[in-house]
Each structure stands twice: as structure tokens, then as C-alpha cells.
Amino acid sequence: MVATQRRGRRVMMTPAERDAFLSEQRTCRVATVSADGRPHASVLWFVWDGASLWLYSITRSRRWTDLRRDPRLAVVVDAGEEYGELRGVELSGTAVFVGEAPRTGAPCPELVEPERLFARKNFDLDAMPHDGRHAWLRLTPDAVASWDFGKLAAEQGG
């Protein structure tokens, strides 16, 4: 069950707005917890399939190591410069490792759609290029929060 957003209902995106926003954006910030308890933040490309966020991570990264030890994950996708333009989504939950690691392209039915979406969005290709260094993480969020401060400006007639 996904936790409901309690604060900021006036600026909260509708599910359709959230899905459109996540489909348009390319870059997210990923937060993990290191073995010493310190947070670690990094940037990745992602794809949203309407239910899960798919991350294609280097398997020799600190992020991958952190998630192998502790799969808790928080991700922020945001955009905008001026206050009234700020929009974003925060998703949190548990990372699931999907497919071979590292990924070389072996058949994996669960990855057909995420790889198609990712290749089109990030490489303008019809098929996913595999480099033998990356592998897939899926985040089906337990909690989602969103904001679109443009809604406040619209309320104020601006």
C-alpha cells in the first residue's frame, strides 16, 4: 500500500500529472544508506512505467553496494528554477534487483518494457544497448509525495 501524502495537498500533483511528469523527466537523485549509516546521494537516469521507477545502475558503484546491503531507497525527481516553477516527486521504498548483474542482454521478460522505454527515452533507440557494467533496480514505491508550486500561482490568479 502506498502511503498518502498529508502535507501540501494544495500543491500535490494528481496521479495523471505525476505520471506525465515522471515520463517527461530524465534524471533523478537517488539516496541510499552506507554501511556506516551515512546517507549517500547520486544521480541516475530512470524510466517510469506507471507503477515503478526503473534505475539502470553501475554494479560497481557505492549505490549498488549500499542497496545490496540495505535495499531501502529514496528518489527525488524535480524540475524548475523559480519558486512558482518548482515541481517534483519523491518516491521511497525497497529496491528490487531485476535480471542479471551486470546486464548483458540475456532474455528477461520482466525487463522487456522497462528496457524499451529506457532505450527510447534516453538513447532514442528501439533496443537497449548493454555494456556489461550496469544492471536494473526497480522501485515500486511505498510512499509518494509530489509538489507543483505553479498551482499556488494559479490559485492567486498569477
CATH fold-type name = Pnp Oxidase, Chain A
- What is the C-alpha radius of gyration, as a whole number of Å? 16 Å
User: CATH superfamily membership, which one?
Assistant: Electron Transport, Fmn-binding Protein, Chain A
Mean pLDDT: 92
Continuous helix count: 4
Number of separate strands: 7
Distance between the termini: 37 Å
The H-and-E topology, N to C, reads as HEEEHEEHEEH
List keywords for this structure.
six-stranded antiparallel β-barrel; 23% helix; Pnp Oxidase, Chain A; alpha+beta; single chain; 4 helices
Structural description of this entry:
The chain is globular, with a radius of gyration of 16 Å. The chain contains 4 helices and 7 strands. It has a single domain (about 15-155), classed as Pnp Oxidase, Chain A (Roll). A 6-stranded antiparallel β-barrel has the order 1-2-3-6-5-4. The chain starts with 14 loop residues before the first helix and ends with a helix. The mean pLDDT is about 90. With about 160 residues, it is α+β, with helices and mostly antiparallel strands. About 25% of the residues lie in helices and about 35% in strands.
Q: What's the layout of helices and strands?
A:
Blueprint: H1 15-24, E1 27-33, E2 39-48, E3 53-58, H2 62-69, E4 72-79, E5 87-98, H3 112-123, E6 134-139, E7 143-148, H4 150-155
Antiparallel strand pairs: 1-2, 1-4, 2-3, 3-6, 4-5, 5-6, 5-7
Summarize the structure.
The protein is built from 4 helices and 7 strands. The chain is an alpha+beta fold.
